[in-house]
Write a structure and sequence with these properties.
The chain has a single domain, classed as Up-down Bundle (Glycerol uptake facilitator protein). The protein contains 9 helices and no strands. Helix 3 crosses helix 7 and helix 4 packs antiparallel against helix 5. It has 313 residues and is mostly helical.
Length: 313
């Protein structure tokens, strides 16, 4: 009887040994089969996101996180860091622009490299808008809240003013020098729309490149290089059109914050009405119209992306 029990016990133990690996192996087989399925689902989820919907689906949707208002935005300490970043970045842009305007277009490569450095250095703080036309385009395309966008524009104007003060202080301290601070050419009586179209085109180019650069926001250097390339392209186009075709010099700027500091507003005239008319004309050509170009550039980028089927946010 004892021998029979030992045989049965050995058989049962042997079965237990043989069955345990089978039960343990089943989850491993399932995981090996299910893993590719999850990868396929993740890969196709973005492709099916806009399937069966209009190409303009989500075109006007909000693209920034959170709900910012005047009552909440100032409670966030990071917001003040963003404003300070816009002030510092625009100040550096102003110093670079004023210096480059003295040296001429042959420094365009140096200008582009310096722009890449400034954009890459400020991007982590505020996204490196550094231009009211970009801020307006970001607000219009709902990439930036209205509150943050307005505060960015104020910070950019302050930064441009600080850059002008620093540059002008060095100029005054130098006394009589070989270089004089350049001034923009006055808008001719029949040349307003020529200057306005040039500013509109340049603003649209800069905004389009900025919108496309946001797709590569995880790579700061790529973002900065694309934006700097767009600004350099707009400046080359502006220089060729104004100097070669219009016979003018320094009558484009593509940055409303810098335009306010670049002595574009008339300070003399035969009457008060003539001075006000000149100021309104300069504001329209160098501030309002470039901002409209910024809105066009951002929406042109979004519309092209939707038509291409990328469904990007």
């Amino acid at each position: 009887m004892a021998t029979k029990k030992s045989k049965t016990s050995t058989k049962s133990s042997a079965k237990a040994k043989t069955t345990k690996p089978k039960t343990a192996a089943k989850p491993a087989v399932k995981s090996e089969i299910e893993a590719p399925k999850t990868k396929k689902v993740e890969a196709t989820s973005t492709a099916k996101k806009c399937e069966g919907k209009s190409c303009l689906y989500g075109f006007f949707a909000k693209k920034y996180e959170g709900n910012e208002s005047f009552l909440t935005v100032f409670k966030n300490p990071k917001f003040y860091g963003s404003l300070l970043g816009e002030v510092i970045g625009t100040m550096l842009i102003a110093l670079l622009f004023f210096a480059a305007s003295l040296m001429g277009l042959h420094t365009i490569a140096t200008y582009a490299i310096a722009l890449i450095a400034i954009l890459a250095g400020i991007y982590a703080f505020s996204g490196a808008c550094l231009n009211p036309l970009v801020s307006v385009g970001m607000m219009a395309s709902r990439r930036l809240s209205v509150v943050r966008g307005i505060m960015y524009i104020i910070a950019e104007i302050i930064g441009a003013w600080l850059g002008w003060l620093i540059f002008n202080a060095f100029h005054l301290a130098g006394g009589e020098t070989a270089y004089e601070i350049p001034t923009m050419s006055a808008i001719a009586e029949n040349g307003f729309w020529v200057v306005a179209i040039l500013e509109l085109l340049g603003g649209a180019i800069i905004a389009f490149f900025f919108a496309r650069a946001l797709k590569y926001k995880r790579s700061v250097f790529t973002f900065a290089a694309i934006v700097a390339g767009g600004i350099a392209l707009a400046m080359v186009l502006g220089y060729v059109v104004s100097a070669a075709f219009l016979g003018l010099n320094n009558n484009f700027i593509f940055n409303p914050a810098l335009a306010m500091m670049f002595q574009i507003f008339p300070t003399a005239g035969d009457s008060f009405g003539e001075i006000i008319g000149g100021i309104l004309q300069a504001l329209s050509a160098y501030a309002i119209i470039p901002m409209i170009g910024g809105v066009i550039g951002f929406y042109l980028s979004d519309f092209t992306a939707k038509l291409s089927g990328s469904c990007e946010e």
